[in-house]
């Protein structure tokens, strides 16, 4: 059974940082590209970032470029999203995804 479990969300002040993790199981993690998608309250899903299977190709939405860093550790079967210089508009539920599979999401709230 494929499972994606996100963690690391929370409440942070503007300008702060969080590191999200996505622990994967039930499939050959190192063979698949991974993405992060977020959904803010009352809005549709927004693609945030992606990383290829080997970790050498990274992609970012313009809204997070220069502030967020995606990475992965294939030995640990985990993908990460380091989020720095957080803004209130980054408030959303963050999901990791590959193919048709999604995690349950982790809430990120940026507020003073």
Care to describe what's here?
It is a single chain. The protein has strands at 3-7, 10-12, 18-25, 34-39, 45-51, 58-60, 68-73, 78-83, 92-98, 101-102, 106-110. The model has no long low-confidence stretch (mean pLDDT 97). Strands 2, 4, 5, 6, 9, 10 and 11 form a 7-stranded mixed sheet that branches. The chain starts with a strand and ends with a strand. It is an all-beta fold and 112 residues long.
Keywords:
112 residues, mainly beta, 4-stranded antiparallel sheet, 0% helix
Strand content: over 45%
Cα Rg:
13 Å
The N- and C-terminal alpha carbons lie at a distance of 40 Å
Order of helices and strands: EEEEEEEEEEE
Poorly predicted ranges (pLDDT <50, ≥5 residues)? none
Compute the average pLDDT. Answer: 97
- E-strand count: 11
What's the number of helices? Answer: 0
Helix content: under 10%
The backbone outline, from C-alpha atoms, is globular
Helix and strand content put the structural class at mainly beta
Largest sheet: 7 strands, mixed
List the helices and strands and how they pair.
Layout: E1 3-7, E2 10-12, E3 18-25, E4 34-39, E5 45-51, E6 58-60, E7 68-73, E8 78-83, E9 92-98, E10 101-102, E11 106-110
Care to give the gist of this entry?
By secondary structure, this protein is mainly β. The protein has strands spanning 3-7, 10-12, 18-25, 34-39, 45-51, 58-60, 68-73, 78-83, 92-98, 101-102, 106-110.
